[in-house]
Amino acid sequence: MESPTGHSTIEHQRLTDAEVARLRADFPLLGRAMGGKPLVYLDSGATSQKPRCVLDSEQHYYERFNAAVHRGAHSLAVEATEVFEDARTTVSRFVGADTDELVWTSNATEALNLLAYSFSNASAGLGGPAAGRFALGPGDEIVVTELEHHANLIPWQELARRTGARLRYIPVDAHGALRLDLAEDIVGPRTRILAFAHVTNVLGTVLDVAALVALARRVGALTVLDACQSVPHLPVDVKALGVDFMAFSGHKMLGPTGIGALYGRRELLNAMPPFLTGGSMITTVTMESAEYLPAPARFEAGTQRVSQAVALATAADYLAEVGMDRIASWERNLGRRMADGLASIPGIRVLGPDRAERIGTAAIDVEGVHPHDVGQFLDSRGVAVRVGHHCAQPLHRALGVTASTRASTYLYTTEGDVDAFLDAVAGVRGFFGVGA
């Protein structure tokens, strides 16, 4: 049996308390105290902390290899290029892609915009006959879900506006579960693109990728997967998932900021017109026109994020060495611990469906207390969480709240961290004089 991640649902041996304690020693920032209290970092869904090896990797690149890649015949430039492309190979392998199917971007938001603008260029007639499969116009439809982060919603809104296509969405129910029972009527013969998250950034729930991909394939639509919250936390094999495109960010998976990636099936990337143009992505240039390299170079104009790519590869190796199955199992344990603990605290509503598959993330609404006040109270106890709408206003609106408080775990989160969070949450309403 396979899960929506494309991997076996057999429960793998999870990390032990002792192993997690050893892992924490790799993360310098986790040793900080905040306001005189040990830091309990539960905001990894926003950005992860970085192990020492990742920090050292980026510095080592600058000290040992720094040169312009793909542009020089001297030995240092050749070495820098090899290191850069080795990083692409490492990260590609981490998600089950071929090396030439991974495009470097600044983050997942840029990756999704790259797709939307490339399709927009195709809709304007650029890219020749091969790009015609990406062209949209009046009568065509783009389908997303009500669960999406704004980064996987607004680019498609804008593409629809530019091309005259119609944007539709698969709604959620009152608990935040995706209405797959309605999806078959929404994803229809006019659907050209189906874009959806693998794991929701607010609720931490794992979507049924196989079911959504099957709906898209039935009507010949392209699938776009936002994997920002799955690649860091679950074993992901993009070929097993069967999606056409996938975007993810480095800073959420122990890597540095300023680096992300777009996966695309080779034949699709090579048929797409470029988005950014300039140096390094061309073959021939005249004063009248230009011809472009195959992917991934055709989407990597200008000076690239070389040191960040190298550090991201180190992060991928670190995660692979720990074991993504084991990380996922540990976080499921933490998620259950959070859910069970929160359920016992009066006045706390855990957002999301009760029995859904989740990563170690919980978003809550505290009766009578604004999420920002909740966050500040927790911060006074040394507990760092996320507050606000988490770039998912439509989902919060569907759940009947304007904002929430989100705690998100990672491989370096301990059971003690979760217990400290629960203890702090239990004190919120009393501190603000709400409830009995």
UniProtKB/TrEMBL annotation:
One of its GO terms (molecular function) is transaminase activity. Its cofactor is pyridoxal 5'-phosphate. Its EC number is 2.8.1.7. CDD domains: SufS_like. SUPFAM superfamilies: PLP-dependent transferases. It holds the Pfam family Aminotran_5. It catalyses: (sulfur carrier)-H + L-cysteine = (sulfur carrier)-SH + L-alanine. It is an enzyme of class 2 (transferase). Residues 40-421 form the Aminotransferase class V domain. Keywords: Aminotransferase, Pyridoxal phosphate, Transferase. PANTHER family: CYSTEINE DESULFURASE, CYSTEINE DESULFURASE 1, CHLOROPLASTIC. Belongs to the class-V pyridoxal-phosphate-dependent aminotransferase family. Csd subfamily. NCBIfam families: sufS (TIGR01979). Catalyzes the removal of elemental sulfur and selenium atoms from L-cysteine, L-cystine, L-selenocysteine, and L-selenocystine to produce L-alanine. This is Cysteine desulfurase. It comes from Arthrobacter halodurans. The lineage of its organism: Bacteria, Bacillati, Actinomycetota, Actinomycetes, Micrococcales.
